[in-house]
Amino acid sequence: MELALYIPELGHLALILGLCFAVVQAFFPLVGAWKADHHWMSLGQPAAWGQFVFLLISFACLTWAFITDDFTVAYTANNSNSMLPWYYKISAVWGAHEGSLLLWAFILAGWTFAVAVFSRQLPEEMLARVLSVMGMISVGFLLFLIVTSNPFERILPQSPVDGRDLNPLLQDFGLVIHPPMLYMGYVGFSVAFSFAIAALLGGKLDAAWARWSRPWTQVAWAFLGIGIALGSWWAYYELGWGGWWFWDPVENASLMPWLIGTALLHSLAVTEKRGLFKNWTVLLAIAAFSLSLLGTFLVRSGVLTSVHAFASDPTRGVFILIFLLVVVASSLLLFAMRAPSVKSKAGFSLLSQETLLLVNNIVLVVATAMVLIGTLYPLILDSLTGSKLSVGPPYFNALFNPLIAILMLALGLGVTLRWKNTPVAWLVKMLGPVLLVSAALSLALTMLADEFNGAVLLVYFLSAWVVFAGLRDMFEKTRHKGLWVGLRGLSRSYLGMHLGHLGLVVCAIGVVLSSHYSAERDLKMAIGDRVELGKYEFVFEGAEHFEGPNYISDKGTIRIFKGEKEIAVLHPEKRLYLVQRMPMTEAGIDPGFTRDLYVALGEPLENGAWAVRLQVKPFVRWIWLGALLTCLGGVLAACDPRYRRKISTRVKDALSTTKKGVANNV
Amino acid sequence: MKTFLVSLLLSFACVFPAAAAIDTYEFDTKADQERFRSLIEELRCPKCQNQNIADSDAEISLDMRDLTYRMMIEDGKTNDEIVAYLVDRYGDFVRYKPPVDKRTFLLWYGPFALLALALLILVVVVARRRKAVTALGENELSAAEQQRIQQLIEQTRENK
Amino acid sequence: MSKGRLIAVFAILLGVAAFAGMAVYGLNNDPRELPSALINKPFPEFKLNNLLVEGQTISKQDLLGKPALVNVWATWCPTCRQEHDDLNKLAKQGVTIYGVNYKDESAKAQRWLTELLNPYALNISDPKGTLGFDLGVYGAPETFLLDKQGVIRLKHVGEVNDRVWREKIGPAYEELLKQ
């Protein structure tokens, strides 16, 4: 019992020990690889395990402090409350700066641990270098944590009786899992980054390197995608505006690494299959992680105005800036000095998968650059001229959407084309029908709607184009074996690719249809009022007082009819969270595959009437469904058996990239 | 996404962002309503910072919405006139769609220039690689690379 | 190292330095502070009631003739309470301050001025916030510095305290006095 009092100190100690292990992991394997010393290199794995175990302990200690309502810990006192339901007490651990950094460091240790466990078949020097680079990143973050943001700091002797509660915004299921997913993605890119740096250090950039880092990249990318989609979904149902993407700097900060990560996935494919674009791939791997760090900097430092920006501690901003600069500058310098100058002699013609994957990369990189320019432009202009302006959704939509259209156009062509060269006649035979069917189908679908809309026509066409081109290619690949046998014979990597592309299509349809066909009304509704919107009738039945565990609420009742039939009863709420005195809108949503009905309460007016927002949002759910499919595609591809251990060992032997220690000596 | 560091948000002077602003303006036509909606979504709240005046329930956003409504519906002003009126008082900061002028040249045209440059590079790369195809024929890979690719292909087949 | 690589290294260092410069600027400046769009523009025309003298109206012409501060305030604004003593001190030193009572109830405002003293040479009542809107006010308190022709020379958002006066508004005011 006595010992339990010291659990936060134990957590702090574990954190420091974790740092010690990270230092060992960063230093010894690298020097070992340089001096070809097996013993030193072999220190990498145990150090990674040790680091993981101690950060796990540390994280568990902080969680313990939350569960047991230990308000002598400043971080707990500021972000929890004894009234908080237990599951939010756990998620409150990463509800603010210190804890989310600890989560970040813990996840990094987790990825490192995974690399140490699953990459035993890597050549000894390669693994040593990879672990060392990951160790360096870890050292940076753990120092940041321990020096500027210690989550275990106590408020003694005058600790508060109760905590100041978790921000009500974060008291929500979506927000319980959103940050861990996002961090899994951000931090996951550190694996691809470390592989790239290790390859540069070792001077061995080849197809095998691409093969090793590919599944890691796919998994990290999928996590990031899920994290972004969750955030967007959460904003949709929680903020009460019915919007799902605001081009807020913080959103952009997560979108940029995802876009570059997408480019990286495709570039890795070329490097693995054809041994081409190696330098470019390395650069993308560096860029993906650098953008993850940039995102952290932008979010933590408050240099940009954002809904999320917070009164920041300047030392934190400076620390993370220095870390960012060191990582970016040193990795780019390493790249500039060590990138192999020998050009691959492999050739390809204009009509080849290589060309189209280059187009993919160009579009995605330009899109990332555009988002980056748009996000930083106010800051750049302010620092150069002192004039302030805003760059918001009208800018981003105007430039981003055409780029995605180009991407989808190239996509249909890209999945059909073969490596190296594709005969024109064959291509016409393949895609001619696809083009015709897509055009006809999209025109027909557009006619069905009441009013003509160019963007809708375009998205129908592009979607059909991508889907049919994919099907055509699948059909072509399975033609000789019969469809069923053939389909089973397709690799997971290939199926994952198509699933990912399907996700893009579904998401694009959701985005365009929901923005063009949404119906919305803000109005005053008295009790019994009946309002027609689209094909639906909304009847307001008033709002009642209601008490939750840590909030009070006005809970409205709105019945929705389609024709004579009642199809939904929604209960939008206007809550007031008591500890932080914070009003919150809880929208009432009737979700559906083809449309969402969305109701939010504004302010109470006289005689029981309320200001109410009614929305019918067709296909809005497709946005997140598409994102989910895309991420599943990434996971499916990463599960391809060819990445698994035995085979990779065989490949490695065949490639004779190993001189000594194949990993069985571990 | 609108998340993870909102905990200190309270230090903001502005009203909390999670309470949506919902007004009860009346419009004669659907077109008017949509025009109003899209205009207020393009205007930024000067107080609550990264929120448009449609979503923000800060006092000043309410004033700006009222003004927009009055100028648009009662005075019959165009969008440009309304935006100009607000920019005169609150500066370019209040428009989410920055004006195209010499300060924003890079912003508006930079991405296009980049795309053009990238396409140019693409053309050069493809032209070079095509030459590599014609010069070396199909066997342009080194022996080692050939062997590797062969291995990869074989083992992909094995695993189907 | 080849020439190409050297160039690349320099380019990278240059880029990183540029970003660092920008980031440091960003860290040292509050992105929430907006400069006024009205700097070096004439004070907007208006015609509003005098808060303290019933039946009297005040217009722009009443503010001309000497450099002065225009302070936008309200009783619902806690920061206004904080800066009020500082304003009293400045008024005692002979600085002309005009008050704009912004979106407020006149009775409350009058009581406030009786209890906390009145630093304002003139009290403009702006209950609907129309003048405030024309001034680009987005929250009280905001303080403008006018020259004697009524051109806005400076705007400060937030509390006017000793430091702000010493470092920002005071010097500009002295400068205008000399003209």
From TrEMBL, chain A:
Residue span, Cytochrome c-type biogenesis protein CcmF C-terminal domain: 321-640
Main location group: membrane
Keyword tags: Cell inner membrane, Cell membrane, Cytochrome c-type biogenesis, Lyase, Membrane, Transmembrane, Transmembrane helix
Source domain of life: Bacteria
Limits of the Cytochrome c assembly protein domain: 94-301
Membrane topology according to the record: Multi-pass membrane protein
Family (UniProt): Belongs to the CcmF/CycK/Ccl1/NrfE/CcsA family.
Role according to the record: Required for the biogenesis of c-type cytochromes. Possible subunit of a heme lyase.
Name of the protein in its database record: Heme lyase CcmF/NrfE family subunit
Species: Thiopseudomonas acetoxidans
UniProtKB/TrEMBL annotation, chain C:
Taxonomic superkingdom: Bacteria
Main localization category: membrane
Keyword hit for Disulfide bond: yes
The keyword Ribonucleoprotein is annotated on this UniProt entry: no
InterPro entries reported in the protein's UniProt record: Periplasmic_diS_OxRdtase_DsbE, Redoxin, Thioredoxin-like_sf, Thioredoxin_CS, Thioredoxin_domain, Thioredoxin_ResA/DsbE_sf
Gene3D superfamilies in the cross-refs: Glutaredoxin
Keyword terms, alphabetized: Cytochrome c-type biogenesis, Disulfide bond, Redox-active center
Residue ranges constituting the Thioredoxin domain according to the UniProt record: 37-178
CDD domains to which the protein is assigned, alphabetical: TlpA_like_DsbE (cd03010)
Intracellular or extracellular location(s): Cell inner membrane
Membrane topology qualifier: Single-pass membrane protein
Annotated coiled-coil segments of the chain: none
Protein family: Belongs to the thioredoxin family. DsbE subfamily.
Protein name: DsbE family thiol:disulfide interchange protein
Organism: Thiopseudomonas acetoxidans
